[in-house]
């Protein structure tokens, strides 16, 4: 199966062609991502209207480029997969309408893919993981611990009750006068800092649920910065290092509980695995924390290559391929984009029943 994938839910315009072999393995044939980082950096965050316009300008060229790199034409494609939520509605409309137009013109089936499902299934493309496994998604818009049970069957075990982890990095950077995007800047500054100088809060640690909270941490960073006058470079480094340590400890507790729950509920699974996804997966402190945690719990830690952890269209194409291979129906051309769209099967059922 060859699938064309389209991703436009946030600030990356992406197109990809992915091959899924009958036995279930996959290969990326062509993959292009255009980041809009520069368009948004002056504003310190993603501006929805600018994002939508940038998708319109770039998407058709990117699709041609992905096909070219894959060495195929639309005739060789078995289905089209386009992200149809969750995300910024303007961008979703651009990607989904383009997908519909191609489906209509070629007569090929269209899969309207949940962006989070793309992240959730990537590890099956890169590492051939089998179900079930746990996924920690940490990006600018999401912080979720998800049980991946089967194609189309997901349970959200935990989510952030306020800021996403990437958002906490970005806001902390802004507060400290570091450049956008904040994650890499904070990580860099933290390298020369003292992680023990500030004892930042670790919200929800010890809580029996598996949720996350990061907004209190951001407030504590602001207070720390305001308490020092003038703030020197070393102070910023110390704040960043202490911030990262608070996050490491939070993750250790929250995700650790998730691993324990998995072992209890799925005691028969041999070689359980934790997958990380999202832009914050680039962070070395986060990676080593999760690696150590997995070692301690007897889990395999899977971190796909970074360009497949951040937003891309290969994961969308792959999710479409998995849906097709699993016999799930394609979507009608009347399918609508959804800015909000939980991946959790039960949450979807509630929305469907109007509750
Ligand atoms: P979505 O949430 O819809 O998937 P997004 O564009 O917000 O999309 P990504 O592109 O996956 O998310 O990731 C961007 C986020 O990752 C930003 O918040 C950025 O600060 C963070 N990030 C990137 N590199 C690092 C790093 N080295 N350490 C910490 N955070 C990082
Ligand atoms: Mg992004
Ligand atoms: Fe994403």
TrEMBL record:
Catalysed reactions, as listed in the record: L-threonylcarbamoyladenylate + adenosine(37) in tRNA = N(6)-L-threonylcarbamoyladenosine(37) in tRNA + AMP + H(+)
Keyword Metal-binding: yes
Residues binding substrate: 137-141, 170, 183, 187, 283
GO MF entries: iron ion binding; tRNA N(6)-L-threonylcarbamoyladenine synthase activity
Listed InterPro entries: ATPase_NBD (IPR043129), Gcp-like_dom (IPR000905), KAE1/TsaD (IPR017861), TsaD (IPR022450)
Cofactor(s) named in the record: Fe(2+)
Annotated Fe cation binding sites: 115, 119, 311
Gcp-like domain location: 28-318
Enzyme class, spelled out: transferase
Keyword match Metal-binding: yes
NCBIfam families: gcp_kae1, T6A_TsaD_YgjD
Protein name: tRNA N6-adenosine threonylcarbamoyltransferase
Species annotation: Sinorhizobium glycinis
Name of the coding gene: tsaD
